[in-house]
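Input chain follows. Return structure tokens only.
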Amino acid sequence: MRRFKPFKPNFLQALFVSGFLTILSAFSANAQNLETREIDLKGCIQTIFEKEFIIKNRETFLKTIRNDASRDFCLKNLETIDFDKYALVGIGLNTGYCRRPLGLKAQAVKESIEKQIILKISYAAPQETCRALSQYDLWILIPKIPENYTVKFDVSTKFGLS
């Protein structure tokens, strides 16, 4: 019967484990959860032609607000956003629901190494599809986006209610 040698860590094995743990901690330190808040824009920005929005300043915000008979209502009734502190990101979601999707969650993660902010959006898969095939517009306030950062939308469906 063949016997195995007892495991004796040597310098190279210890160095490898140490390096691996250092790299692993760097990747986990790279991602930072950001504080977010959903905002109701009362249909004042239409997502019919564009599906994803990244609004970093008031000028772009005012240009994006619908330019029809509802514009005055929108300008008077929308919440004031401090674009020195926040950015507004939005997406039109075709979820299969008639209104707000069940279990809708949105989380923003800042990835320093990749210089991007990922908006992770998830919701429960519908039991039945809405006959109206309507869209839900999700608007989220996130901290001001640093220069040279991009925003990525990551939408996923969860099966079963959570």
